[in-house]
UniProtKB/TrEMBL annotation, chain A:
<keyword id="KW-0813">Transport</keyword>
<keyword id="KW-0472">Membrane</keyword>
<feature type="transmembrane region" description="Helical">
    <location>
        <begin position="48"/>
        <end position="75"/>
    </location>
</feature>
<dbReference type="GO" id="GO:0031460">
    <property type="term" value="P:glycine betaine transport"/>
</dbReference>
<feature type="transmembrane region" description="Helical">
    <location>
        <begin position="179"/>
        <end position="207"/>
    </location>
</feature>
<feature type="transmembrane region" description="Helical">
    <location>
        <begin position="20"/>
        <end position="41"/>
    </location>
</feature>
<keyword id="KW-0812">Transmembrane</keyword>
<feature type="domain" description="ABC transmembrane type-1">
    <location>
        <begin position="15"/>
        <end position="197"/>
    </location>
</feature>
<dbReference type="InterPro" id="IPR000515">
    <property type="entry name" value="MetI-like"/>
</dbReference>
From TrEMBL, chain B:
<dbReference type="GO" id="GO:0015418">
    <property type="term" value="F:ABC-type quaternary ammonium compound transporting activity"/>
</dbReference>
<dbReference type="InterPro" id="IPR027417">
    <property type="entry name" value="P-loop_NTPase"/>
</dbReference>
<keyword id="KW-0067">ATP-binding</keyword>
<feature type="domain" description="ABC transporter">
    <location>
        <begin position="3"/>
        <end position="238"/>
    </location>
</feature>
<dbReference type="Pfam" id="PF00005">
    <property type="entry name" value="ABC_tran"/>
</dbReference>
<keyword id="KW-0813">Transport</keyword>
<keyword id="KW-0547">Nucleotide-binding</keyword>
<dbReference type="InterPro" id="IPR003593">
    <property type="entry name" value="AAA+_ATPase"/>
</dbReference>
<dbReference type="GO" id="GO:0016887">
    <property type="term" value="F:ATP hydrolysis activity"/>
</dbReference>
Amino acid sequence: MTWLEANRSYVLDMLLQHVQIAVPAVLISIVAAVALGRLAWRWRRVGAVVLGATSLLYSVPALPLLIVIPVVLSIPLRSDLNLIIALALYGTALLAGTALDAFRSVDPRVREAAEALGHSRAGIWWKVDLPLSFPVLLSGIRVITVSTVSLVTIGALVGIQSLGNLLTDGFQRGIHAEIVTGIVLTILVAVVLDVLLVLVGALVTPWRRRTPRARSRRRADDTAAVSA
Amino acid sequence: MGIEFRGVSKTYADGTVAVTDFSCTVPSHSTLALVGSSGSGKTTLMRMVNRMVDPSAGTVLIDERDVRELDKVALRRSIGYVPQAGGLLPHRRVVDNVATVPVLTGTSRRTARADALDLLARVGLDPALGRRFPSQLSGGQQQRVAVARALAADPHILLMDEPFGAVDPIVRRDLQDQLAELQAELGKTIVLVTHDIDEAFRLGDQVVILRTGGVVAQTGTPQQILAEPADDFVRDFVGADRAERRLTTTEVDGRRIVVDGDGRPVGVLA
Ligand SMILES: Nc1ncnc2c1ncn2[C@@H]1O[C@H](COP(=O)(O)OP(=O)(O)O)[C@@H](O)[C@H]1O
Ligand SMILES: [Mg+2]
């Protein structure tokens, strides 16, 4: 506790850093994975190839990736951007397949009916495909959010600051309280973001909230409709 | 608004022949029932009207205008569409499902919702159901909502694809009666797809019986088809030999009673 009290602002700094890297990485992953998933949904063959190549990305070890990215894009090794890009690549690799599943989960009868009513292509995307694929997509987003938050710590090995620094620094200097703080806070960030995602998910998909009463009401109504 | 199918055919990309040289005119304010077993090309034919399917040959005309000259999206918005079971937007409340097309065409959401509640009442639903999501309704109620949605923009033409195919027979009968009532009042030009010959006879002014490959087996009024089935296929399909269609009369206490082939009374001759 005394260590934590003495190092409050440092810990807060690292915490903030951590979130500032994880959140953009997740956001980029979502956009990229949705685009790839959509591509794969639309053109099966091309999609299978692209998704296959994307999932290979996940097998590239993190440290080499953190060295290759700055070389290819000529950005500094020790920059947040470097780590954000690396994590976004992993996130995309993990999420693209789920995004494809998400689009496949949309009932084609619903999509066709929407088209027949006179929705434009863009209308179907925004008003039908996106909201209806969201529940499956969200399950994937939760997975990459948690994995991204824990992966951010790796940046400490090449000098990109995050809660990972509490781990490396703690080990080097043998400060147990620092290590424990790093671990606990990393888990906490993951849990808080996950809970937020679940809440947002429930908020934007009200049609999936089933009241237990709905089922019994349903039956009663049909008899009422007949006798009416 | 009349609809004319002029020598239309459809062969899908995989080589499936769905419709073969089909011609038919649907006069304004009348109902055409397309009936046939599964895969006989009914849905394909119906979809040619709102350009969900473009024919491989021939043309479809609405009021003498080739539908291919019309903008797809605008055309679809101008035509009411009742899909098979499961075609409601599951993530929109019932009232918003009904208001879909008016909102698409620029009516304010507020006005569209108010109109939608009135429409729910017209199709026999409690407007209070407007707040529910489709999954919270029974199958029969969902199809009533689908009918209300199709009527929301007050289209001249209504396309219905086995609208009551998935609801149980008693509810189906009720829905058919309600549709007949609405039609008597509204006088839409309707293309109704069904595999239920009784439904076709009950609702169609003109009935087309299709065989596999979208080949016409017979076209006519229900009376004509029952009186003179074109061939054994039609006879079999309409069940002309079925006991409940072979009606005879007997006299009981001076009144003429109509009984079916099983001897069950079905009515009194006026
Ligand atoms: N998009 C499509 N691609 C290929 N074949 C299709 C397509 N849609 C329908 N078909 C085929 O065309 C035939 C007629 O289908 P459809 O018009 O749906 O018949 P119905 O509505 O009478 O059941 C069937 O053999 C069906 O499998
Ligand atoms: Mg069909």
